[in-house]
Specification:
heterodimer, A: about 220 residues, alpha/beta, Rossmann fold, B: about 400 residues, alpha+beta
Chain lengths: ~220, ~400
C-alpha cells in the first residue's frame, strides 16, 4: 500500500516567549492523501502556519511526528531534509518571496538547478510551467517588474518545478486583491484537477470553499 | 552554480553601495600592492642596478662600502693586474671618485669626477657621442647636468680643475679636455653633475696619481655561480681590501633600509585588514537584509552549501574586481611615489623603490583573493544558519 503524501501524528509545538511557554500546537494529527485539496482555516494565532511549517519540514515539532511519503522527517539530517523539501514538497508563501534579481523563468528554474536538472531540460520545463500559469509572455521579466498576482503565479510555477508530491501554500491570496486572488483560486482548482495534492492555509472563505476538505483550527488544535 | 549566479546578480541590487565598496577595496588593494612592491622592490632594484653591466663584485677600502667614504685603495694597478690574470675573472677595472671643478666663463662649478678604465667600467651608459677609449688622456664624458652647468656639448672643449686650495681659490692643476660623449651615470642622484675621464687623468686632478689610488675596483667573474667562492678567494688574496659581492651589498643595503620594509609590512597588513573589514561588513549587511529571502530559499530546498556559495561568490567577485582596479591604481600610485622617493638626495636616480613584477602582482592578488574569500566566511555562516521557520514568521508579521 502506498504511503500517504503527508501524515502527522500528535504534533505539539511549544515556543518560549518572554519567559512564558506558548503552546502553538496541542496534539494535531492529520492525514493528507494523494489528490487531496485540504484547506486549513482558523483565526490568527490558531496554529495554522505552524502546522504547515511542521508538515513541510521547515520547523521541528516539540513532540509528535510527520511523515512525507512514508519517510519520518525526524529521521533525516539537515541535508536530507533539505533535499526532501526540494524534491517532494512545493511551497507557496503569502509574500511570494521570489528572488528580485532573477527573471520569472530563472526563479522557476532555481529549484530545478538546485536539484541538478540539466539546463535545457529545466529551461523547457520552466517555460511550460509559466505557460501553465499564464505567464509565458512574462518569462524574461524580472520579479520586480511583475504585479502581485503575477508574482504569486510565478511562485506557483516555482513550487511545481520539481514535480512535488504535495504543494503547501500559506495564505496564498493574503496579499492579493479579490480579482487577482480569484486567479490563484482558479489555478489551484486546475492543479488539483490535474492530480496535484494541495494543503492551503487560508483566511479566504472562497479558497476554503474550493477545497475538498476543510480543517478548522482553534487554539493549536483541530476543532472538529 | 546556482548560488554563484545568484550571488553575482545580488551585487547589482545596490549599485551605489557595491560601487563604493569596490572603490574602498581597490584603494586597499592598491596600497597592498604598493607595499608588496616596496618590500621586495628595493632589493630587486638595487641588485639589478649593481648587475646592470655584469660586474658581480666590488673591492673597496677595508671596512667601507662603495663611495661610502673618501677612503681609497692603494696600489690599484698591481691589484687590477693580478685580478686580470686570474682565470676566474672575466674583467676588472679601478674607479676613482673625487671632487673636481669645471671652469665656466665667470666661475668654477663643483663637479663629481669619476676616473675609470674604459675597458672595464660599469658606471655609465653612453646616451650621445662616443665612449672614452683606453689611454684617451684628452677626452671627457659628461652627465646631462654637468653638460648644462658647463654649457658644453659633444665635441666642445671644457676645462677641469683639480687640487683646488679653498683658502686662496687657486688650482694647482687644470686640463682642457674634449667632450667625447654624454652619459647617464647609473649610481648618480637626480641632477648630479658628473664627469668621467680615464683613471690616470682623474688621479692627476685629485692628487692621487703618485699613490696609484682608487675608490673601488670592479670585478666581473666568468661564472655567476662561482661568485661566492671567488669572493672568498679574493678576500684571502687581498686582505687589505673589502670584497663585496652584489649579494653582500644588497644585504648591507637591506639593513640600512630596514625601516622601509617594516613600514611596508605594517601598511600592507593594515590595508589587508581594511579590505577584509569592508568586505565582511558589506556582506554582513546584505545578508541581514536578505535573511527572509534566504530563509525562503532554504524552505524550498536550497542547500546550505548553495547559500554559502552565494555569499562567498559575492565576496570573491567584489575582491576580484577590487583587485583588478587596485592593481591599476597601485601601479599608477607606485610611479608617483617612486618619483618622490628617488628624488631624495644621495639616492641613485636609476633606482626604484617600487618594482612591478609578475610574481609581485600575482602574490598581492592571491593574498587579496584569499582574504576576500575569508572575509565572506562569517556572513556566509550567518546566512546558512538563518533559522527558517522563525525568520519566515518574522517576515510574515
Amino acid at each position: 500500500m502506498t504511503p500517504p503524501p503527508l501524515l502527522a501524528r500528535e504534533l505539539r509545538k511549544d515556543y518560549p516567549m518572554n519567559g512564558v511557554t506558548v503552546h502553538a500546537l496541542r496534539g494535531v494529527s492529520l492525514r493528507v492523501d494523494r489528490g487531496d485539496y485540504v484547506a486549513i482555516v482558523g483565526p490568527s494565532g490558531s496554529g495554522k502556519s505552524t502546522l504547515l511549517q511542521l508538515l513541510g519540514g521547515i520547523d521541528t515539532p516539540s513532540s509528535g511526528s510527520v511523515e512525507v511519503l512514508g519517510t519520518p522527517l525526524d529521521t533525516l539530517g539537515d541535508s536530507e531534509l533539505t533535499r526532501l523539501r526540494l524534491t517532494r514538497l512545493g511551497f507557496i508563501f503569502q509574500r511570494f518571496h521570489l528572488l528580485p534579481v532573477l527573471t520569472a523563468r530563472e526563479n522557476v528554474e532555481l529549484p530545478m538547478a538546485e536539484a541538478g536538472v540539466r539546463r535545457a531540460e529545466r529551461q523547457g520545463r520552466a517555460r511550460e510551467l509559466l505557460e501553465f500559469v499564464g505567464l509565458g509572455h512574462r518569462a524574461e521579466h524580472r520579479a520586480t517588474q511583475l504585479s502581485g498576482g503575477e508574482m504569486q503565479r510565478v511562485a506557483v510555477a516555482r513550487a511545481l518545478a520539481n514535480r512535488p508530491a504535495v504543494v503547501l501554500a500559506d495564505e496564498p491570496t493574503g496579499e492579493l486583491d479579490a480579482g487577482t486572488g480569484q486567479e490563484i483560486l482558479d489555478l489551484f482548482r486546475r492543479l488539483n484537477a490535474g492530480g496535484t495534492t494541495l494543503v492551503v492555509v487560508t483566511h479566504d472563505d472562497r479558497l476554503a470553499a474550493e477545497a475538498g476538505r476543510v480543517v478548522h483550527m482553534l487554539d493549536g488544535a483541530i476543532r472538529d | 552554480m546556482t548560488g554563484v549566479i545568484w550571488g553575482l546578480k545580488n551585487l547589482a541590487r545596490q549599485p551605489l553601495r557595491t560601487g563604493l565598496s569596490l572603490i574602498g577595496i581597490a584603494v586597499a588593494a592598491a596600497m597592498l600592492l604598493d607595499m608588496v612592491m616596496l618590500s621586495g622592490g628595493i632589493d630587486q632594484s638595487f641588485s639589478d642596478l649593481l648587475l646592470r653591466r655584469g660586474f658581480q663584485m666590488r673591492l673597496t677600502p677595508k671596512g667601507t662600502l662603495p663611495f661610502d667614504t673618501e677612503a681609497t685603495i692603494g696600489g690599484v694597478s698591481e691589484i687590477v693586474a693580478a685580478l686580470r690574470r686570474d682565470p676566474a675573472v672575466a674583467a676588472a677595472g679601478a674607479v676613482l671618485g673625487t671632487s673636481v671643478y669645471g671652469r665656466t666663463p665667470d666661475s668654477l662649478v663643483t663637479l663629481f669626477g669619476y676616473g675609470i678604465e674604459p675597458e672595464a667600467q660599469s658606471l655609465y651608459e653612453v646616451t650621445g657621442g662616443q665612449d672614452l677609449t683606453s689611454g684617451d688622456s684628452s677626452g671627457v664624458v659628461l652627465s646631462e647636468a654637468a653638460a648644462r652647468l658647463l654649457g658644453a656639448s659633444v665635441g666642445d672643449t671644457v676645462t677641469l680643475v683639480g687640487r683646488l686650495d679653498p683658502q686662496v681659490v687657486t688650482a694647482a692643476v687644470g686640463r682642457r679636455l674634449v667632450v667625447r660623449g654624454l652619459v647617464r651615470w647609473l649610481y648618480d642622484y637626480r641632477g648630479q653633475p658628473s664627469v668621467g675621464t680615464v683613471l690616470p687623468l682623474m688621479q692627476s686632478l685629485s692628487r692621487q696619481a703618485a699613490a696609484d689610488r682608487a675608490s673601488l675596483i670592479l670585478v666581473k667573474a666568468r661564472d655567476d655561480r662561482a661568485v661566492p667562492q671567488l669572493a672568498d678567494r679574493l678576500r684571502q688574496r687581498f686582505p687589505q681590501v673589502e670584497v663585496n659581492s652584489v649579494a653582500d651589498l644588497v644585504a648591507h643595503f637591506r639593513e640600512r633600509l630596514v625601516y622601509f620594509r617594516q613600514l611596508s609590512y605594517i601598511l600592507g597588513s593594515m590595508s589587508l585588514i581594511v579590505a577584509v573589514l569592508l568586505i565582511a561588513t558589506l556582506l554582513t549587511i546584505t545578508v541581514n537584509e536578505r535573511l527572509g529571502e534566504i530563509a525562503t530559499l532554504r524552505a524550498i530546498g536550497v542547500s546550505r552549501a548553495t547559500v554559502v556559495a552565494q555569499v562567498l561568490a559575492e565576496g570573491t567577485t567584489l575582491t576580484l574586481i577590487g583587485a583588478v582596479l587596485g592593481i591599476a591604481l597601485g601601479l599608477v600610485t607606485a610611479r608617483y611615489l617612486d618619483a618622490i622617493l628617488t628624488s631624495f638626495p644621495g639616492l641613485p636616480a636609476a633606482f626604484s623603490f617600487f618594482v612591478p613584477r609578475a610574481d609581485t602582482l600575482a602574490f598581492a592578488a592571491l593574498v587579496l583573493l584569499v582574504t576576500g574569500a575569508l572575509a565572506g566566511l562569517y556572513p556566509a555562516w550567518l546566512a546558512s544558519r538563518a533559522p527558517i521557520a522563525a525568520t519566515l514568521r518574522a517576515e510574515a508579521t
